[in-house]
Design brief:
heterodimer; A: mainly alpha; 19 helices; B: 113 residues; Alpha-Beta Plaits
Chain lengths: 414, 113
C-alpha cells in the first residue's frame, strides 16, 4: 500500500507546496520555489526510505518545506536584502517569515497560479506542460509520456515558458473583475485541452490518460469553489467533462482497444457522473451567454441518454449547427454530418460530406465509409483504404483494417 | 478566400404569421442550411431581421415599415467565405428563402486597406 501511497502523496503535496511557495516568492523566483520543493521531496524519499514513512507524512513535508525556505533565506543574503524585505512588508506585522500552508492559502495559491500559467503569453502546449508540472504535480517523465516525447523536450519547453513569465513579471493573483472573464477564457481552454489530451489523444497508457482527465476536472473544480470564478461557462465545462468521463470505462476493452459509442455496454456508463453532468448543466444555464462549452455539454447530455428517439438526434444536429457557427472544428463538422445522416438520410449526408474539405483526415474517410455502407460497397473499401493510410494511432489503425477486411469479404460495417 | 454577403429578399405578403410549430420548423430549416456552410468552415456571421422598422428619406420624411416603396422585403443576411463569386453562389443552394419563392442576392464584400 505504501508503494502506492507515496507517489500519490508526492503528487498532491508537491502541487500544494509549490503553489504556495511560488505565490510567496513571485513568478520571478519560480525556480527557487521549485528547488525548495524538489529538495523537500528528495529528502522525503531518502529519509522515508531509511526510517519508514512518518506518522503524518503531510505535516512532515510541510515542516521540511518551511525549514528549507527559512534556511534559504538565511543562506542567501541578496535574497534577504531584496525579496525577503518585500515579502515581509506585504505580510502583516510579524518579524518571522510566515509560510502559510493552510487549506485556504493552498487553494488560493493554486487558483492564482492557474491564472499565471494559463497566460496567452506562452503557447497552449507550454501552458498545459506547466499546468501538469506545477498545478498537477506530474513528473517530467510523465509529462513527456503524455506528449509522446522525451524529457529534454519537455524540460526545454517548461524552461522557456517560465522564462517568458519571469521576464514579463506576471503577477500571481486573480485578475480584476474587468479582466477576469477574458483571462478565464484562457484558463478554461487550457483545462479543456488537458481533458481532451486525456480523452481523445492517442497514447497507449490508459492510466495516464484517465489521470489527465481527472486533473482537468480537479482544476475546474478549483474554479467552481471560488465565487469570482464560478461562472456559467465554468459550470458548462464541468458538465461536459462529467458527461464524457461517464463513458470512460465503457469505451475501452480489456486490451485497451477503443469501443465505439454504438457498441458500448450502456450498463458501464457511470450514472453518478451523468447526474453530476446534469447538475452542472443546470447551473450553467444562468445568464444569457451560450458558449461552445454549453453547446458541447448539451450534446454530451444527449449522448448520455440511452434512447434511440429521433428527438435525441434532432437536438444533437441543431446543437452542432450552432456550435459550428461559434467555432469551426473538423471533428464538429464530421459529427454534424453524421447526425444529419440519422435525422434525414445517408444520401443527403454524403452530399454534404463531399462538400467538406477534410481529405487528409482519416476520420473524414471513416465517416464516408460509414455513410456509403448499404449504398456502395466499392466506395466503402475506397474510403477505408484512404483512412488506413492516413491514420496514425495503433488502435484506430487496427479498427479500420478490421473493417476493411470485413468490407472486402462483402460484410457490412458494424 | 474572400467574404461574400447573401441578402435574403422576399415579396411582401399578407399571409398570417406562422404558428409556433411552423416557426420551429423554419428555424430548423435555416439552421440546417447555415450549419452546412459552417461545416465547410465557410461561415462568418448572420442575422435575421424582424418586422419592425421605419424608412428615413433624405428630405426628412420618415415612413413606417422597412419596405416603404419596394415590394420586396429584406429578411436577413449571411456573410460567408468563398473562393470566388461562383463558389459563393454555390453555397446559396438550399437556402430556405428560395424554397418560399424569395431571392438570394450574392454580393462581394469590399475590403478597404
Amino acid at each position: 500500500m505504501q508503494k502506492e501511497l507515496i507517489p500519490h502523496l508526492f503528487k498532491t503535496e508537491y502541487r500544494k507546496i509549490i503553489s504556495v511557495l511560488c505565490k510567496l516568492f513571485g513568478i520571478v523566483h519560480i525556480e527557487i520555489a521549485e528547488d525548495i520543493t524538489n529538495d523537500t521531496f528528495l529528502l522525503a524519499t531518502e529519509t522515508w526510505g531509511l526510517k519508514g514513512v512518518p506518522q503524518n507524512p503531510t505535516a512532515w513535508l510541510y515542516t521540511v518545506a518551511k525549514n528549507k525556505t527559512k534556511d534559504y533565506f538565511k543562506r542567501n543574503k541578496i535574497f534577504i536584502d531584496k525579496i525577503a524585505v518585500e515579502i515581509k512588508n506585504s505580510q502583516s506585522n510579524s518579524d518571522e517569515l510566515e509560510i502559510d500552508l493552510s487549506n485556504k492559502n493552498i487553494n488560493d495559491s493554486q487558483l492564482q497560479m492557474m491564472f499565471a500559467i494559463c497566460n496567452p503569453l506562452i503557447s497552449k502546449e507550454t501552458q498545459i506542460g506547466l499546468a501538469l508540472r506545477i498545478l498537477c504535480g506530474f513528473g517530467i517523465d510523465e509529462i513527456a509520456g503524455a506528449f509522446l516525447t522525451n524529457k529534454e523536450v519537455i524540460n526545454k519547453r517548461l524552461y522557456r515558458g517560465k522564462e517568458k513569465l519571469r521576464l514579463a513579471n506576471i503577477k500571481i493573483e486573480l485578475p480584476n473583475e474587468k479582466e477576469i472573464e477574458k483571462r478565464l477564457a484562457s484558463v478554461l481552454s487550457t483545462i479543456y485541452l488537458l481533458f481532451n489530451e486525456g480523452y481523445y489523444v492517442s497514447y497507449q497508457n490508459l492510466i495516464i490518460k484517465k489521470e489527465l482527465c481527472l486533473e482537468a476536472m480537479r482544476l475546474n473544480y478549483l474554479l467552481l469553489k471560488n465565487i469570482k470564478t464560478n461562472t456559467p461557462k465554468v459550470n458548462a465545462l464541468m458538465s461536459l467533462m462529467c458527461f464524457h468521463s461517464s463513458r470512460f470505462n465503457a469505451r475501452t476493452d480489456e486490451k485497451g482497444g477503443l469501443i465505439l459509442y454504438n457498441n458500448q455496454n450502456k450498463d458501464n456508463w457511470d450514472k453518478e457522473l451523468i447526474d453530476k453532468g446534469k447538475y452542472y448543466l443546470n447551473l450553467s444555464s444562468k445568464g444569457n451567454e451560450i458558449s461552445k462549452y454549453h453547446l458541447e455539454a448539451a450534446i454530451a447530455f444527449w449522448h448520455s441518454q440511452n434512447i434511440d428517439a429521433t428527438i435525441k438526434w434532432e437536438n444533437i444536429l441543431q446543437l452542432y449547427n450552432q456550435l459550428l457557427q461559434i467555432e469551426y472544428s473538423p471533428i464538429a463538422a464530421l459529427n454534424r454530418t453524421y447526425a444529419l445522416s440519422i435525422v434525414y438520410n445517408k444520401t443527403l449526408a454524403i452530399k454534404e460530406a463531399l462538400k467538406i474539405e477534410l481529405k487528409n483526415n482519416h476520420l473524414y474517410h471513416c465517416l464516408l465509409a460509414e455513410l456509403y455502407n448499404d449504398i456502395d460497397s466499392k466506395k466503402v473499401i475506397y474510403h477505408l483504404e484512404k483512412a488506413l493510410k492516413i491514420a496514425k494511432n495503433k488502435n484506430e489503425k487496427k479498427m479500420i483494417s478490421n473493417n476493411l477486411k470485413n468490407a472486402k469479404c462483402g460484410q457490412k460495417l458494424t | 478566400m474572400k467574404e461574400f454577403m447573401m441578402i435574403f429578399r422576399n415579396e411582401k405578403n399578407d399571409q398570417p404569421k406562422p404558428s409556433p410549430d411552423q416557426m420551429q420548423a423554419l428555424v430548423k430549416q435555416w439552421q440546417d442550411w447555415i450549419g452546412g456552410i459552417a461545416a465547410q468552415g465557410k461561415f462568418v456571421s448572420t442575422n435575421a431581421l424582424g418586422f419592425e422598422g421605419k424608412t428615413v428619406s433624405a428630405d426628412g420624411l420618415i415612413t413606417d415599415g422597412p419596405y416603404a416603396e419596394v415590394k420586396e422585403i429584406v429578411g436577413g443576411y449571411i456573410i460567408v467565405k468563398a473562393d470566388d463569386l461562383n463558389d459563393a453562389v454555390e453555397l446559396s443552394k438550399g437556402c430556405p428563402t428560395l424554397l418560399s419563392g424569395g431571392k438570394v442576392e450574392v454580393r462581394d464584400v469590399m475590403v478597404f486597406n
